[in-house]
Amino acid sequence: MKDKKTKEILKSLDKKYSALGQDKDMYLEGLLHSKTMNYWDYIHTDALLNLQIQRTNFPDEMVFICYHQINELIFKMILWELEQIAEVNVLKVSFFTDKLMRISRYFDMLTSSFNIMKDGMDVEQYNKFRHTLAPGSGFQSAQYRKIEFASTELINLIDHRFRKTIDRSTPFEHAFEHLYWQAAGKDYENSNKSILLSNFESRYKEEFITFMKVYNNKNLWTRYKELSKKSQANKSLIKAMRHYDYTVNITWVMGHFNTAKHYILATSGGGEATGGSQWQKYMHPKYQKRIFFPELWTTKEKDNWGYEAEN
């Protein structure tokens, strides 16, 4: 029985490498010389654990660094799922729903993890070492911006003050200058930008615009609208989309907001973020009303967006 299975595997390997124009025996011989796999080499544990470099001697800075690196790894997992929804040729309701709920669980985990920051760092230590991070800020997470671009129509990420002047015919470069998060570091009267925003754009602007163009026709909402009317009305899918929207733009954001408030407003320093952003109006959902799928919410729900989370 075992010999039969071995023959079947060899036959499949022969077929695979013949299709590639390769000699199967060469690959089999390579197995004789390869090392056995172990956990630490596969995960690259040593490399991973050497990426935490403190700028101060405060012990809790290590908590801060590790926490944000974990966030970025989770963001990578989320983008991986979003890419699969964007690229699948035939989008089925079950696939779409399962992926959305998987992504929501990642954000649920991120939301609950804010307690690690809120209750896991000494306030006095944080308000000393954070000054060495200026003008850097969590605002500058490029992966999070990509998650937004991959989730919704670009118009839903435009600063609410300018949405009536922007549509699908608007150049991406112009739309970029009016994204909601520009308000965190831009004076629209004279177009001056903070160093926080200027540094961020210098590193990522071209990459963002390319990403915006790619996902313009395959973000979550666009892919949803490609489904049949019957599929769009699927209750489980609508529930999953609403859950994802609320989880990202209310629950997670408020968890982040409350943690920032706990530390930044804990001192009498005026409540200024390390990057100098107007973080309270930028972060709180009631101001910008970031909603990925506005058509799936009632007028009352949209009007109350972010307000109920304060209570």
Provide keyphrases for this structure.
mainly alpha, globular, two-stranded antiparallel sheet, 1% strand, 2 strands
Polypeptide structure, described:
There is one protein chain. With 311 residues, the protein is mainly α. It contains 17 helices and 2 strands. It has a two-stranded antiparallel ribbon. Helix 6 runs parallel beside helix 14. The protein is globular and about 75 Å long. 23% of the residues are buried.
SSE topology sketch:
Elements lengths: L1 H18 L4 H10 L5 H5 L1 H4 L11 H28 L5 H20 L1 H5 L4 H7 L12 H10 L20 H5 L9 E2 L4 E2 L1 H21 L4 H7 L2 H4 L2 H30 L14 H5 L1 H4 L10 H5 L8
Antiparallel strand pairs: 1-2
Helix pairs in contact: 5-6, 5-9, 6-14, 9-11
A few lines on this structure:
With 311 residues, the protein is mainly α. The chain contains 17 helices and two strands. Helices cover 60% and strands 1% of the residues.
Strands ordered across the widest β-sheet = 1-2
| Basic shape | globular
How many helices? The count is 17
- Which structural class fits the helix and strand makeup? mainly alpha
